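Lab notebook, bench 4. The sequencing result for the construct came back, and we need a structural model before the next group meeting so we can plan mutations. Quick request posted to the team channel:

Model the 3D structure of this chain.
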Amino acid sequence: MSLLAVKKLSLSFRGLQVLSDVSFEVVPGEVFAIIGPNGAGKTSILNSISGFYHPDEGQIFFEDQDITHMAAHRRAALGIGRTFQNIALYRGMSALDNIKLGAHSHLKTGLLASLCYWGPAHREEMALRRKVEEDIIDFLEIEAIRKLPVGSLAYGLQKRVELGRALAMRPKILLMDEPVTGMNAEETEDMARFILDINEEHNMTIVLIEHDMKVIMDISDRVLVLNFGQKLAEGKPEDVQQHPQVIKAYLGEKKARNGHIPSAAR
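Done. Here's the predicted structure in token form:
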């Protein structure tokens, strides 16, 4: 049974076809990667799943529920978490406060108590803080920077904070848009390890977009390849990497004769 099902999805902007008849399914507990050359429609897929874009045609199902026309905040409440290619944090706020924002949709205190910040509101806030510190900050190994404003942090640490905020939403599926782009080798290795730990230890399903083929080969269970908004191939990483049409899409007709995609296809 699939956790997420995308069926015959098509999307266009002012006559420009971005996605055309794309279908795939993601099963619970897997790491599902979406790759393709720049402009292939990868981020548009994630934006359609999370509710930022609404497709022209097709359907999106999450836990067998049709969410095609559901608002983005309702999809988040169902358990669809998201990180972004360009870091979307509040730079003047601390790492801890940024992460806590991800969990506020789960708070149950009424408006009046929250405004007054007494009794139940204060206790709930403190419980949230303890849970974030114990479960997420420790897990991501960012205890030393939890009180620092994120604007002062190195890029790799900001990416961890953004991941922490997504985890604080307690998602059932996590959509990750180029989680290691712009990172050095050490930061890339750390992020890949965190992704695997999230998947294996928390049994969280992950859908990720990534250009680094080494990361894709190391951590993905299955791979979907897009090109010009269309599905080109789908399968295990080692099979997709050797697919002739995939190699051609990345390298062009002449270089494709050499027979493989480079480790960081950008």
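The two ends are 33 Å apart (CA to CA).
Will bring this to the meeting.
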